[in-house]
Amino acid sequence: MIVVIGGTGTTGRAVLRGLRAQGVPTRALVRTPTDLPGVEQVIGDAADPGAVRAALTGAAGLFLAMGNGPRQEAIELGVVDEAARARVGHLVKLSAPGPENSPVAVARLHHRVEEAVRSWGITHTFLRPYAFFQNLLFHADRIRATGWFPTTTGDTRLNMVDARDVADVAVNALTFGATGTHVLTGPEAVSYPEVAAKLTAAGRPTRCVNITPDELRADLRGAPDWLVNHVLEIQHLSTTHPEHPNDTVSRLLGRPPRSLDNFLHEHAPAFGAPTTTPPQQAATN
């Protein structure tokens, strides 16, 4: 039995789909009954030790992917404690890249949770992706309506990766027992102006407008402070620490990672672009 905590998130759902496709018995801890065909569900909150304990009963493996937020570290640490007590054989954690003293607060908390896993002696795999292609959908409504979106990163190239590739690596680790710490990227680092150019080429004229951090903070007015700070921290870090793609996804999965061109084609209507023939899958660098 493989348990997924975070199974209603983008990566968690993809992990559940991958495990089901391989016929692996799966269980998800969810707050409310959810449309997850073929998945056993335990109803409860990951912050509740009793619910986590129930979900982990008889578990051979665990995929842990909590959404970012002020309670994330405490919740994840509680799950790790319960996983150790339940003698879960293998824990795969969705983590974040960067050093232990990263200027990004969320990255630092991920490292502290990783250290807790190590201290318990749990067999583990840590997955450290950069930004997901799926995060671009945050801008989709604005792009569809106005044809532009803001950033503070200028022409800086970013390591974006498809969340489904991250999920496939997680499924591979859970089913074959592969361990280690893996930084995951797509086939190329891409700047936001290049994303705009790709959307323009796809039929939706799009501009990326570079603004100041204060202007971005104002643009994000209404979002929680922690989220605004997180966005500003990761965008600033990308401009001070160059990001370079690697071959980890292709090495672990035996195939190239999904390309941004294909992702944008899949989601063309969301951005206001016409649906056309899919571009050829790009190879890894």
What's a concise summary of this model?
This protein is an alpha/beta fold and 285 residues long.
Shape: globular
- Mind telling me which CATH architecture of the largest domain this is? 3-Layer(aba) Sandwich
How many domains? The number is: 2
Q: Radius of gyration, rounded? A: 19 Å
Largest sheet: 7 strands, parallel
Distance between the termini: 36 Å
Number of strands: 12
Query: What quaternary form is this?
Result: single chain
Low-confidence stretches: none
CATH H-level superfamily title of the largest domain: NAD(P)-binding Rossmann-like Domain
User: Helix content range of the residues, please?
Assistant: 40-55%
Q: What is the fold named in CATH at topology level of the largest domain? A: Rossmann fold
- Helix tally equals 12
Helix-and-strand structural type: alpha/beta
CATH C-level class of the largest domain is: Alpha Beta
- Tell me the strand percentage band: 15-25%
Mean pLDDT: 94
Secondary structure elements and pairings:
Elements: E1 2-5, H1 10-21, E2 26-30, E3 40-43, H2 49-56, E4 61-64, H3 72-85, E5 90-94, H4 105-120, E6 124-129, E7 131-132, H5 140-146, E8 148-151, E9 158-161, H6 163-176, E10 180-184, E11 189-190, H7 192-201, E12 207-210, H8 213-219, H9 225-240, H10 248-253, H11 260-266, H12 268-271
Parallel strand pairs: 1-2, 1-4, 2-3, 4-5, 5-6, 6-10, 7-9, 8-12
Antiparallel strand pairs: 9-11
